[in-house]
Description:
Layout: E1 2-11, E2 14-24, E3 29-33, H1 40-48, E4 54-60, E5 63-64, H2 70-75, E6 78-81, H3 93-100, H4 110-120, H5 122-125, H6 137-149, E7 155-159, H7 167-178, E8 187-191, H8 195-201, E9 204-209, E10 212-218, H9 219-224, H10 226-233
Parallel strand pairs: 3-8, 3-9, 6-7, 7-8
Antiparallel strand pairs: 1-2, 1-4, 4-5, 9-10
Helix pairs in contact: 3-6, 6-7
Family: Belongs to the ABC transporter superfamily.
GO molecular function, one term: ATP hydrolysis activity
Keywords: Amino-acid transport, ATP-binding, Nucleotide-binding, Transport
Amino acid sequence: MLKIEDLTIRYHGMPALSGVNLQVEAGERTAFVGPNGGGKSSLLKAVSGTVEEWEGQISFEGTNLAQVAPHDRVEMGIIHIPEGRRVFSGMSVRENLLVGAQRRAARPHVDQQMDVVRELFPTLMEMLSRPGESLSGGQQQMLAIARGLMGCPRLLMLDEPSMGLSPLAAETVFTGLGRLEEFGEVTLILVEQRAPDAFELCETAHVFESGSLVSSGRSADLAADGRLAAIYLGEV
């Protein structure tokens, strides 16, 4: 589904990612893990079209994305939920969710996707009239993910969904994400500092450090590699 070939990303001429090659299959759940500054978030931004200085090739379902504008990538089903939640603070929870359903392919399925949100994050459905700014950090993160799901994503990219959350809120978020496959095929890329949670959710993983891809494989195998875990992942 997603193919990255010799991808290099620069900010003001300085490399953030260098010569990365990887592939994500349809329906796969894969984690990008490793220390901060590894280039994980930059890769997601390149796929969604929000970095300007890059070279290499990014293909989605056989289409080269080089000349595809960010809004057209959304129409293709590429949904990127960046770190920091970024809910519309002055809009209600319901309005936030409906904003996520503006993709043309999603409009006929609003009721169906609202049912998915109800199953994954039932707490949100009790807050539909509340403004986004009144929600806790964990609730805002659930809303950001739910808004992305309202777009009927083909590829859902999540950047640090547990950042700044309490252990209980993070557990609620990961529990909801773990049930995604119950509601149809969604390809998931998860950038996450909490490697154990990422490995539990995702079948495969890629380890990044200092702008390079240093290891790839099944999550269980990477977690069992003591040397790799000690150097790049902390305690797994």
